[in-house]
Amino acid sequence: MASNYNRKSASSGSRKARGSSTPGRGARASSSASRPSGRGAARSSAGRASAGRSSRPSQQGAYRAMPGGRYPAAGSGGYPQQRLTSVRVGDLDRAERASRAQSTYRRHVVRLAVVASLVAALVIGAVVAYNSSLFAVENVTVSGVEHLTTEDMTAMANVPANTTLLRVDAAGIRERLLKNAWVADAEVKRVFPNTLELAVTERTIAAVVAVPTEDAKSVKQWAIASDHMWLMPIPDQDSEAGKRTSPKVYEDAAAVLSITDVPYGTKAEIGTYCSDDNVNNALDIVSGMTTELAGRVTKVSATDAEGTTLTLDDNVEIAFGKAEDIRDKERVVLKIMEENPTVVYINVRAVDRPTWRAL
Biased-composition ranges for Low complexity (predicted)? Predict the structure, then answer.
């Protein structure tokens, strides 16, 4: 036990010796020895803390450098402690693009919703109007007809009663009109609020063909169009059928050429195209003329294509033949007529070897 005690004493002594040999530590020791104790010490510490806080610079003021050009460390009473973070530029760009895309998407959604609402309202309104009596057809007007009467057109159109401009079958009406031989084209127009207009383009009479009857005892006058469609048999003007026929038909028939000497067996049917080569050849000759000669032809004999003969308004006969080299034949005929005023017959079937006869 004595041995242990001696070691402790020696150790204590040695520490004291070292402490006395070091000036710095001795100063701290003496300083701590001079500190007041008890409540005086507490008041002294509080005073120092208050003085320290009052001497700190305000966060809104400027920071002063410490002696030696150094600044106080963060969180040590100098600069306020700040947390530093790092963000890559690419991350910012992606975030901005995502924000813009989301904003654009929301705008598109709103627009689509508005458009869908408008379309739905329009569809509902259209369905209601379609099934109602709104825009009922009260008037049917006809334009462009001369050979057909208004009664004929109304009957062909057959517009249903109690229909409306929204429900009327315009395509069906047009199809029914086109079945008539006189109608080359037709347009059905809705004129709101209550009028249906039928605009028609008619065929015109190009010639009147004397078609032999089945018993070959007489002929029937048929109107034929320039596109070779049979239009109608022309009834006697004083007959009951003639009284129901438009006066324009008789007016045109008197002004166009007459095709005669058609061979027996030629078939004519309303609304069909002529299949007789002799009649078609005669029509092609007249329609292909481009000089004053065309207006002077009054009759065409169509016994056969090779023997087709034209008769002019001054009774000059022209053996024209087939509808070939029409312009050359016209030129030759006009030259012969100019050089021979008394000519009564010209043969241009072979245009390079024409012949003629004069009084």
Answer: 8-58
Q: CA gyration radius for the chain?
A: 59
Q: How far apart are CA 166 and CA 294, in angstroms?
A: 49
> In whole angstroms, what is the distance from residue 173 CA to residue 203 CA?
19
Q: What is the pTM of this model?
A: 0.63
Give the pairing type, strands 205-212 and 219-225: antiparallel
Residue written as token pair 């010639």: 207
Contact criterion met (CB below 8 Å) for 157 and 163 = no
Q: Distance between CA atoms of 286 and 178, rounded to whole angstroms? A: 27
Is domain 139-202 given the CATH code 1.20.1050.40 in the classification?
A: no
Q: How far apart are CA 85 and CA 88, in angstroms?
A: 10
Question: Does residue 151 contact residue 140 with C-beta atoms inside 8 Å?
Answer: no
Strand partners, 208: 223, 258
Extents of the domains making up the chain: 139-202, 205-358
- Asked if 332 and 348 touch (Cβ cutoff 8 Å), the reply is yes
CATH class of 205-358: alpha beta
Produce one character per residue of 205-222: b if its CB has 16 or more CB atoms within 10 Å, e if not: bbbbbbbbeeeeeebeeb
